[in-house]
Amino acid sequence: MYSEKVMDHFMNPRNVGEIENADGIGEVGNAKCGDIMKMYLKIENDVIVDVKFKTFGCGSAIATSSIATEMIKGKTIQEALKLTNQAVVEALDGLPPQKIHCSVLAEQAVKSALLDYAKKHHITLDELNDFHPDEDHHEHGEEYEEA
């Protein structure tokens, strides 16, 4: 059901924690179903030099958060803006259909943190003009276990 990569990132998540005085912080999720992701970015000269996350949710939520941090660390803001949930799923060698929403949350958490960075630094990131971090991308009524 789950790939080796999903299990590895769930059992040994990378970049867990917080960044004090983060340049951008994004939080997405839905407390009702239990998946909440918080992403912290440290950015220098338009490059993400550090990224950390805290996720409350199922194993897939933790795995997608972990791989997303690895995918954007060391990248420019513009490169990180191109992260898609499909790229997250592919990097994990797939997810069950009912867990695809976790990859969407990972993408949204990154974009939410970048939006926070842009607001704090009074810059415009055109790629985020239509981004609304408060949209709920969950399938309501589905139960999630704490992981």
TrEMBL record:
CDD domains cross-referenced by the UniProt entry: IscU_like (cd06664)
Domain (NIF system FeS cluster assembly NifU N-terminal): residue spans on this chain: 1-121
InterPro entries: NIF_FeS_clus_asmbl_NifU-like, NIF_FeS_clus_asmbl_NifU_N
Pfam family, one: NifU_N
Record GO biological process: iron-sulfur cluster assembly
Gene3D superfamilies: 3.90.1010.10
GO molecular-function term, one example from the UniProt record: iron-sulfur cluster binding
Protein name per the record: Iron-sulfur cluster assembly scaffold protein IscU
Protein species of origin: Thermotalea metallivorans
